[in-house]
Amino acid sequence: MYFYNVNELYRAMSPSVPLQEMIRAIRSARTQCEERGVIQRECAAIRAQFRQADNGGRSHNLAKLLYVHMLGYPAHFGQMECVRMIASPRYSEKRVGYLGAMMLLDEKQDASLLITNSIKNDLSHSNQYVQSLALCTLACMGSAEMCRDLAPEIDRLLRASNSYIKKKAALCAVHIVRKVHDLGGVSCIASSGGTPSDNSIPRVLHGAVVLIIELCERNPETLERFRKTVPDLVQIMKGLVLSGYSPEHDVAGISDPFLQVRILRLLRILGHNNEGASDAMNDLLAQVATNTDSTKTVGNAVLYETVLTVLDIKSESGLRVLAVNILGRFLLNNDRNIRYIAMTSLQKIVGTDHNAVQRHRGTIVDCLKDQDASVKRRALELSLALVSASNVRSMMKELLLFLSSCPAELKAHAASGIFNAAERYAPSQRWHIDTILHVLTTAGGDVRDETVPNLIQLITNASELHCYTVHKLYRALLTDISQQSLVQVACWCIGEYGDLLLRGECQETEAVQVTEDDVLDALETVLQSHMSSPATRGFALTATMKLSTRITDNVDRIRSIVSIYGSCIDVELQQRAVEYNALFKKYDHMRAAVLERMPVIEKNSPGHTNGESTGEAIKDIQPAKVKQGEPLLPPQPANQVCDLLDLLGGSEETLQPCPAVGAPAPGLLINTASTAGGDLLDLLGVLEPAPLAPAPTVPVYEKDGVTLTLSCEKQCDTGLTVTLTASNSTDSDISSFTLQAAVPKSVQLHMKAPSGDSLPARRTAKVTQMVVLNNPNKVNLKMRVRISYTSQGSAFQDTVQIDSFPGLDAAGQ
């Protein structure tokens, strides 16, 4: 019955059905298909009437077509009708024609050029409303060519006495300035802008201020010219602030807030980096900041624009403190949008006005409890920026409390910020270790990969806290083994300082009696847990092996645990187990020396290994490269050297000497030699080696905070090893970092796997890429390196040409 009524209603519609009846028929359609049928029949009727030469309902038909366009259906066939109606002398048709042009035409269509002459004629029309139609259309869809042709007409209207036309001409001039990029084409408009004092009527003044803002942002010469109008703008603004109630322009008790915001924005542009203009507006800004009502949204809008102006010009220190206090009041507002913009503004000035922002630290910390995720993120960023040496304990307590309850998407950012703040402002090593362990316990799965080696390096340096740390990590391991980073550090410490744990004597913490079986049970739980990653199992297996030299009653149990993983499906874990089994069987007499305690790990200490200076060129030791499976080997007697060389391979071959030996990390020092004589004893520290000059490292690329250095090591007459080291000095992390190299065709190139693909901020870690070159023809060696990475969501790519390689004989390469 309902469907029948809709069709009967439309069949009763004549070709000249009113717009209201067409809308009623469309809204009465029950399905999308029925709606399309109604619109198609009506569009066909409109097309037929457009073809008629004498059509009295042109505006009526175009109005219906515009409604169809608003519904999303094609209406392009009405473009030419718009052009014809704009040229009509009748105002009713001209009005609908201009409306249709603004909706159906744009500057990319050729039909828009057909109305240029009509707009020019209407700009000179005697009727102000016809002029207004032409100005609105030009400001809405005028192309660059159209704006350039009609700029003289707009210049003439800017000097008109009619305030209604003058306001619309000013707004149209703004569109012309934006479209015509060569400012020479709109110089006449700049000269017609006049001064704000010339336009006393508020609606004209508003349009003039918008035009001046646009001109000043695009042309430095115009900016210098309008700086002379600062006193006039100050007087106008004072009049608005001190004026009484005006029903025509009053909004919530604020006199013309839209004009006030525009004037303040213009003052900010004029006073930027200009002391004279800034001095002229300081008193006004203080007056606006103190006299504007902050209980209404309108007043907050004016105050926020005032704050932005104060912070952007060369204002007095007292005025800046007043601006920060206003932002502090915004933080107490119930509107989350106002709190968000307040924290965004404070984040920008915390570096320059740190003490002023610190006064609102309590309010900012309270915003961490807000339910809105955006407000929480801003509050977290601002709280991390407020951490200093004087408040690190109190701020870290609040941040750790926030970390325990924050959303999952903020945990990684919060943990990274806490690590950086703790490293910079830690009052003691124990506090530093406790803070990092608290983060690992709370958000161990969301921390960066370099957290584990960094904490290990910190623990090894704090020798007086080894007993305290191993006891605390052991209790944490018993409580939760799901946090992989925490479990890895705990296993490492138990393997290194298990003897301190078994003693049960610790002055810093409550004494707990731990037996050997308890410790091995905990490590075996980690090895067998489905939550443990392969890397975590590697830490646990190495810790179990190291305990074989620190306990006395359960060595057989350790041997059985290690032997089980000799057939593990994980290749890395299997290799470690096989090597450890070899230590138990064939080289048991060396096990104590191989598995002794690690020395202090020096962070980024080139030229040193195991605390001794060597003659080799040692690469920078990155924290991410520390592995517990590479223990230190002290000097051994000469009769054990061959056993040492055969430890993992069991080879009986005579080894050939190597021209250079690198020591990338503390671990098993294995060299090759033709005999077990002087060279091997020299390697193990029995003899004093003659120091060699380290390979020079030179920077080859430095741009946007990314630095790339190069060092070379000549392997033979034609062989060369090039080491490229990249670091990131910016405040944001870099991901997807890759290096690609190209050399001449006669040179053979082999790129080894890089050490990573991410560069943390502030040079906390580096990426190393080794390139092996073979130059048999000894051509002039050159290399081109392409650098690609992603920072803050944007991809970057650059190329650097390397023409010289340090430390090489030019004739040889």
Automatic annotation (TrEMBL):
Transmembrane intervals: none
A Pfam family: Adaptin_N
Family annotation (SUPFAM superfamilies): ARM repeat (SSF48371), Clathrin adaptor appendage domain (SSF49348)
Keywords from the UniProt entry: Cytoplasmic vesicle, Golgi apparatus, Membrane, Protein transport, Transport
GO cellular component: AP-1 adaptor complex
Any one GO BP annotation for this protein: vesicle-mediated transport
Membrane topology category: Peripheral membrane protein
Domain GAE positions: 693-806
Subcellular localization(s) per the UniProt record: Cytoplasmic vesicle membrane; Endomembrane system; Golgi apparatus
InterPro entries for the chain: Adaptor_Complx_Large_Subunit, AP1_complex_gsu, ARM-like, ARM-type_fold, Clathrin/coatomer_adapt-like_N, Clathrin_a/b/g-adaptin_app_Ig, Clathrin_app_Ig-like_sf, GAE_dom
Superkingdom of origin: Eukaryota
PANTHER family named in the record: ADAPTIN, ALPHA/GAMMA/EPSILON (PTHR22780)
Family: Belongs to the adaptor complexes large subunit family.
Protein name per its UniProtKB record: AP-1 complex subunit gamma
Organism: Perca fluviatilis (European perch)
